[in-house]
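[09:14] KT: can someone run the structure on this one? pasting the chain below
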Amino acid sequence: MDLKTWKSRDAVDAQSLKEALTAPYDAIRNMSRFRQAGMNDFATLFGPKMAVVDFKESGFVQHGGWTRHKVETGDNPNGTAFRVPTTGTYYIFSEIFLRADSDTNAGRHWWMYIEKRTSPGDEDSSVHLTSGIVQSEVKKYHMSNSANCIAFLEEGDYICAAIYSGYAWQNPIQDRDIASRMGAYLIAPGEASDGNEF
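[09:31] RB: done, structure tokens below
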């Protein structure tokens, strides 16, 4: 984004001043972004398994060219990966709700990762950008897990949320298409990482 500047003694008219004030807001409003809400049902996660979350197509909203893709590999081939349309530094978030199976199958430790891949199903190229962990024992109740990060992504990369557990977990009984979600927002366009990812 090029910001309007003036030299000493330059005349400043109302139109150029308006453009200088509104250009940053227009740029922010048009940043690449997506939001995904609602998780499709999956078979009980009897571990150890690593399953990419399968999000509902109806809950996908995007600006700037984001697209959804099935991973077609791993413990959940229907899992959803999102293709990055614009190179830059992004804020990425995910929150997933699961419930314990029963009194006899208590839910215990489970991890949720935000992953970067070079193609939707390429597990070998997966890079864990960040993760969240739940260590409580739960019976017949829900438990949330969340993670977020700032990361440099290149056009053509894919990101997804993956769950790993060695115990029995199921989908939320009442997800209402809001409990489980993922998204990303471009905060700094650019062709090179500035080293500020965390």
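[09:33] KT: thanks! The first strand starts at residue 33 and ends at 37.
[09:34] RB: yep, looked fine to me
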